[in-house]
Design goal:
The chain has 247 residues and is of the alpha/beta class. The protein folds into 2 domains: 1-32; 34-240, Zn-dependent exopeptidases (Aminopeptidase). Helix content is 51%, strand content 15%. It is built from 8 helices and 8 strands, in the order ααβββαβαββαβαβαα. It has helices at residues 2-32, 36-45, 74-91, 114-128, 159-176, 189-193, 209-214, 218-240; strands at residues 53-58, 68-69, 72-73, 95-98, 133-140, 151-154, 184-185, 198-205. Strands 4-1-5-8-6-7 form a 6-stranded mixed β-sheet, with helices on both faces. It has a two-stranded antiparallel sheet with strand order 2-3. Strand 2 (68-69) and strand 3 form a beta hairpin. The protein is globular and about 50 Å long. The structure holds zinc ion. Zinc ion is lined by residues 59-60, 66, 74, 138.
Amino acid sequence: MKRRKNRPALKTLVLLVCVCLLFIGAARTYEFAVTAADRREVAALAPVLVDKLVVIDPGHGGPDPGVVRNGVCEKDITLDVALRLAAYLEQGGARVLLTRDKDCDLADPGAKSRKRQDLERRVAMANDNKADIFVSIHVNSFPGANEHGAQTFSQPDCTEGHELARAIQRELQTLLRNTDRVAKKADYFTGRTTKMPAVVVEIGFITNPREFRLLQESSYQSKVAFAVCAGLVRYFAEQSGAVPSVQ
Ligand SMILES: [Zn+2]
């Protein structure tokens, strides 16, 4: 008798668990999907990308792994996101140069200052080809686990660079919905030495457990890449006067 009485309760429990799992699944899909409306808005402005030359710089590579956590290297995440960004930009009609498209650096193996030579050659690729903009992709880290959110940096004395950083940051905020960080000015070698507006996009914190997981997921990498692409579209649209500049 006792067992019979418990069956409806068990059924209700199983049903509840199923509903919860469905809800969690739906929430995840909603959270990580770029909406059709987002895509339509970016697509409408995408013609501003035609014939623009964008140099995408996946941070680190080769002997320089960047930040590492549990064997997961920054250099691999930045390359994955950069390749996705390149695909989005090319779909929009932009020309794209990647400073690297595999796990390598640009320096000579025996170079005295390998890191310096690597960075100089990345910048030279943009300057020699007269790129319109230079976008470096990096992953952030912090001693504490709480810091989170993507953030875009530009050179302090470059107004256009800051406008570019702001446009990208706005799209990161809108599309990722997980950061209220704002575009910031910071002195980087790449920003100091490129002849065109340059930004560094720190796409998240490897030291934050949630972002550590997300940064390895292809759906999240695509979403970050789409947000950066949308930022570039917005920047070029603002520069051409197609849309008003948002302060
Ligand atoms: Zn880095």
